[in-house]
Design brief:
The chain is α+β, with helices and mostly antiparallel strands. Helix content is about 20%, strand content about 40%. The longest helix is centred in the first third of the chain and has 10 residues.
Amino acid sequence: MTKTTVEEYRAAITEQGFHEIERCPDNPEIASGVRVHHRGERYLEAEMKGTATVVAVFRRGTDEAPDNWEQTYGRPNVEILVEFDQERYGTRFAYWADYGTVVARDWLTSMQERYTPTEGFVRCAFSPHEGWQCVQAEGHGGIGHLVADS
């Protein structure tokens, strides 16, 4: 039977031995109310705006008493409960591991807030390993320097 309410999802997670925590230990940006998308959603709108909002963060085990998964993999066993913007497979809710969660980045707005060009021009490029890198070129074809990255 498909779960359809947030209460059903919370119950399913807690029945597996998870307890609710304030934020993800390995990525403190992941907390209730944050816009995210699943790592498998690799299109620009998902990366910039997200496709879901974090409802809650859960962990099985603690720093003092890690569960078997944590002992095996050497990191906290964390699940993220999200509410999608649109219904998927008969529900708007889902949960997945924290390492499958990406915080949405509106890189254009972020860059504009941190940098206002005064002279020269800005070049931006995206690298899957380093994210957005923006460089202000001095004059015409001069050597640039990093002014913003995210």
